Known about the structure:
Helix content: 40-55%
Number of domains: 4
Largest sheet: 8 strands, mixed
Strand content: 15-25%
Shape: globular
Number of helices: 24
Number of strands: 22
Radius of gyration: 34 Å
Amino acid sequence: MIRNYFKIAWRNLTKRKVFTAINVFGLSMGFASSILIYLFISHHLSFDNFHKDSDNIYRITTEEHIGQTHYITSAPPGFAKVFREEFAYADKVAKTARERNLIIDIPKNNSTTKFKQDISFVEEDFFKIFNFPLLDGSHSISLSDPNTAVITEQKALDLFGKKDVVGETFVLENDKTIKITGVLKDFPETTFFDGDIFVAFKNLKDFSNWTASETWGGITSSLQCFIKLNPNQDMSAIENALLELPKKYRPNYKNKHVYQLQPLSDMHFNPVYGGLNPAFLIIFGIIGLFLIGIASINFINISSAQAFYRSKEIGVRKVLGSLKQQLFWQFLVETLLISFIASCLGFLVTAFTLPSFNTLFDLELTLNSLLDIKFITFFIALLVSVSLLAGSYPGILIARIVPVLALKGKLNHNDTGGAFTRKVLVVTQFSISIILIVATIVISKQITFAVDGDLGFEKESIVMLGIPPHENPEMLNTLKNRLKNIPGVQQVSNCFGSPGAAQNNWGSIIRYNNRPEYEEFSNTIKAGDADYLKLFNIPLVSGRSFFKDDKTTEVMVNEMFVERLGDTSVEEVLGKTLELHEHKMTIVGVFKNFHNQKFTTEIAPAIVTPNQEWYREIAVKLNYTNTKEVLTQVSNVWTDTFSNYIFDYHFLDERVAEQYETEQRYLSLSKLFSGLAILIGCMGIYGLILFFVNQRLKEIGIRKILGSNVRNILALFSVGFIKLILIAGLIAIPITWYVMEQWLQGYAYRTNIEWWYFLIAIAFTLILALITISYQTVKVAISNPVKVLKTE
Length: 792
């Protein structure tokens, strides 16, 4: 019986090749999208689940309350020692600090090769908390002695050309000789930690004495503290105990700290602390269901329409003794066969598109994940669900056909049922398409608004050059003057971070005008010389910039700083004092606000001070011609000044755009899925039009003989679909508006949802639908009616 089902199913599918192709194409795109989305979601859900006792591993985070709440993935440098000595909650406690762009020298054949490298300084217990084994599989990693390090196997190959590098040495920052004591297996991609060179924490004081200290006076996100708790601990009791630490070790600070335990499983999915927003995974899952749903709607619409076409077949089968359940299962087998063929094509599409998908999201997903029992279970469930969803309703319609009416040819579309349901499904299908189109437009507009909008500073043709730490200020001034003499260089400024550089932000509280208390708001500190505002084209509102020979006696503030002070003006703050880290300075100027972070964050009070000890970069503004040649000269001058370091640069506009890299990626995917939804929907309309036109060929022939033209015939078939798409648009408008308004709430500075976004989406959908309808309708309308009517 089952064999007979499949034989008849194959015969029916090959008999109606066009309808079969439409269904197979739609379902294969839906399956391919679902597979890619499954790989993406399962990849993110597997982060750091391979560590032993991962449920007991936590990171210490800080809520800093000063005017508003700041969420920091760290604690003061002194926290780890106190937690280790004063509490018995933890089995292991370890700090790790990241120092970026350090220089390492690798000795090779009586010479050295230099590399610029991020270095992780870790306490010994770090590798007892986390399961990052050595290449030999053991966990006996020792970093208790200074000047020792472990590196990953891939980094060993990159630096030394071999994996067996135990005992080898490298020189760190032209000073410290570090001995490699172990080689780690390469970390899996699904881990929060992306380091590959780990140096003993005791060496950190040579590069950042403050970070290596035991102070409670400040906090930096480059330093993190991890703990592995003893089993069966009460989290609320621990966090309540931590509330006493700021009172004991930070009693006089205005910025109040609240220390919390962040579970390891939360680190990848907490957007407050820089993790992925779980909403993205939910949205991806919904989009996958949308695409499968649209393809299934196509199948239901076309199949239910064909119920009328197959009525005589069903009538004969019933007369010969077929039962309703047999007819139902016959149709369900046809659906299963189509779904199986579509799933095979879906796998091929996945294999073909996976490299591009990996490139888009900077991932390393492989098809090996499809051999996992979880995926096999997921895919079987998806295949069965789609077959039941797409096949059940048409199967029921076919099974209930009355054989007498079918054999007499007296059935109409109402007798086979499904006409109203088809309309509802078409409306649903195009509502989804319009929602996706409008969402794509809104996301695109917001990203464009953020990247290309008025940030309050100039970012074009500005190159940021890194400079070695602790360099002589006179050397920096000499370098600046040499760079200014290069033809094509317009302006140069020494600074600590450019405007809009979220990675170079430094926050601090200040004391204003000798007030007894520190101000209850945090400030963004931007060290810069007298040319800072001029180079970035940041206008002054009042006062002046620094003089050329300023040290730390003067400071400029932004408009938001003045606003946060309260009852004062941009003129009244001039000449007032400001105390920052024991430096007492006079406010000489107020500059316009600029966006220093993403548009998700409100503009913060900002301070620019000419403290040369804080400079970490040189900003160079170029003219618009011969950029490559000018950069070569800049590189030569920089290298001549810092011969023991590696020249590195970044264009400021690219640095700003990188902050929206995640949004750009999701925008690209939104465009792709929106296009697929429209394409699948239009193919479904094409299938329905093809069926209805074939059913009404003789009617069209008679209409032409009676004087109807192509336009009349086109209107005959298109008016109904136009009405359905307009209804879909009316349904989509409130849904899309609400969803995108919620999304835009995450931006402190945002674009607006304009009415014409919906008009474009509905018009675009209508045009594509009309093109689809016209292709088949016009072809029939211009044909010779005699050929259609000659058998009458």
